[in-house]
Amino acid sequence: MEVKFVLNRSEIVLNVRPDEYLAETLRGQGILSVRVGCDESNCGSCTVLIDGKPSMSCSVLTAQVEGKHVTTVEDIQKEANLIADFFGDEGADQCGFCLVGFALVVHALSLEYENPTDEEIKNYLVGNLCRCSGYNSQMLAVKRYLAEVKKHAKK
Fold first, then answer.
1. Per the structure, how many domains does the chain have?
2. Environment class of residue 148 by beta-carbon count within 10 Å: exposed (0-12), middle (13-18) or buried (19+)?
3. 82 with 16, same domain?
């Protein structure tokens, strides 16, 4: 079946199987930042943004993104690098496997909320698992990143 959508600001048309999941499609297109860690929407490694909202691409059929905008970390590289720096500074990224998913979620959070509460941040991060570090360091990194984004937005 033919599916047409916008991937990282470029319109594409692909022929996919009706039962093909977006993670498989994106990886087949060379988007290897979309990782598959569980195939059950439990870990967040396959996170992408669909129309600006975080989604687990391992549980979204490619046909469901017809006419939508799909964003991977490749399209927000500057922001992702900055988020990674904050995670590194707080010791929140030991192996880095989860960082791509976190970067997309934190980016979406920064676009949706001007001053998110701790609870709103936790609600955004809840679908992303890290098997290496504690979540306290991630929370500190996210808060520092959001403060930096806000500071630069005022300039």
1. 2
2. middle
3. no
Q: How far apart are CA 76 and CA 59, in angstroms?
A: 22
CB within 8 Å of 34: residues ≥ 6 apart: 23, 26, 27, 46, 48, 57, 72, 100
CB 80 within 8 A of CB 88: no
Q: Is the pTM of this model over 0.85?
A: yes
For residue 138, the one-letter residue type is Q
Tokens standing for residue 80: 């992702």
Q: What is the pLDDT of residues 20-44, one digit of tens each?
A: 999 999 999 999 999 887 777 778 8
d(CA 151, CA 149) in angstroms, rounded, equals 5
CATH code for the domain in which residue 118 is found: 1.10.150.120
Same domain, 61 and 87: no
